[in-house]
Write a structure and sequence with these properties.
Layout: H1 3-16, H2 23-30, H3 35-40, E1 50-54, H4 60-67, E2 71-76, H5 79-89, E3 94-97, E4 110-116, H6 125-134, E5 135-149, H7 152-161, H8 170-182, E6 186-194, E7 197-205
Parallel strand pairs: 1-2, 1-4, 2-3, 4-5
Antiparallel strand pairs: 5-7, 6-7
């Protein structure tokens, strides 16, 4: 791990914990205000009505899902993010504090599991095993792990920070797919065009 990668790991740990209140501002800056649009891009790929979001952050996607009258549950390991999301969503929203490697849910109860812009925990074999466990047969695990910037400034920013590969090639597709296949999923990888970026979306079906 190089110096920039170590710095970014510390930066994101701070962003999700003591400086969680700055998350929306940082996300808006690095996406030119399109972050929440990027996050919502996963919704057309959901199936069923019983959904679980891993890493709910400040709660924007949860708000969108509940507005659509979907039966959505969310979890995050960050207590500060949990407090921010509760203020946004209200006390009636079902939020849990837990890690993705140990989900506090029964087996085969969700139609869709979603995670948008997660950190490296999403490729942990135990995370993938847990996602597979809580999904019903035919259920879908949707992951939006990265954006490929199309604007000049964003390309430079993501290149400097190492937060996004330069492009999606077959080697990267195979590397990503292998994690999910080993956990028992069938995998399709899509690239969705969005303003200022192309979004990588992983569709892993049980």
């Amino acid at each position: 791990m190089n110096l920039i990668q170590r710095f970014m790991r510390v930066f994101f740990d701070l962003l999700y914990h003591p400086f969680a209140f700055t998350y929306d501002l940082v996300a808006a800056v690095v996406s030119f205000g399109k972050w929440n649009d990027w996050v919502r891009s996963v919704i057309p790929f959901t199936s069923g009505t019983r959904l679980l979001e891993l890493g709910h952050g400040p709660g924007h996607l949860q708000l969108e899902l509940t507005t659509r009258r979907l039966d959505s549950v969310a979890m995050d390991e960050s207590a500060p993010m949990g407090r921010i999301a509760k203020r946004r969503l209200g006390s009636s929203q079902k939020l849990a504090r837990a890690i993705a490697q140990e989900m506090p849910f029964a087996s085969e109860i969700f139609d869709t599991v979603i995670s948008t812009f997660p950190s490296e925990y999403i490729f942990d074999p135990q995370t993938l095993t847990e996602a597979h466990r809580v999904l019903r047969s035919g259920g879908r695990f949707i992951v939006l792990p990265v954006a490929f910037p199309t604007s000049g400034f964003l390309k430079w920013l993501y290149k400097v920070t190492g937060e996004s590969p330069a492009a999606l090639d077959e080697n990267l597709k195979e590397k990503i797919s292998a994690h999910f296949i080993q956990a028992g999923f069938s995998v399709e990888i899509k690239t969705v065009e969005a303003k200022f970026s192309n979004l990588l979306i992983i569709l892993a079906d049980k």
